Amino acid sequence: MTTQIDNPRAPYRRQKITRSNFEMWGWLFMRGSGVILVVLIFGHLFVNLMVGEGVSRIDFAFVGGKWTSPFWQTWDLLMLWLAMIHGTNGVRTIINDYSERHITRLILKLALYSAFILTVVLGTLVIFTFEPCPANAPADLLPSFC
């Protein structure tokens, strides 16, 4: 069995002609979201690890206190959404590049998109429905800021 290898000096021929710029917009999104994610992640790490007492103060009360502020809810929501979209787009590109059979590509993308949706929906619900001070809870179990 012989395999024919294309001439590496031959001009590039597009396999499929499309009118969509989806891949270009995906590429631009990866660059923009990467820059924004660097700012969000380093800001998150700085506030959580460097300001105040450092890593020793991170507990339920710390997270509950942060998430009482709409600013930190929005910060963490942006970080979650951008990281998940950025990562999903990257893995989608890898699946397109390395899976040879159409059915394999379809199954892998379905698993990827299912994981994306599940993580984003649950993460968003946790950020917005987190209640550190539940009603009728014993006072000795509540954080100090309640």
From TrEMBL:
GO terms for cellular component: membrane. Keywords: Heme, Iron, Membrane, Metal-binding, Transmembrane, Transmembrane helix. The keyword Acyltransferase does not apply. Its main location: membrane. It is found in: Membrane. The chain crosses the membrane at residues 24-47, 77-95, 107-130. Pfam families: Sdh_cyt. One of its GO terms (molecular function) is metal ion binding. The keyword Magnesium does not apply. This is Succinate dehydrogenase hydrophobic anchor subunit-like protein.
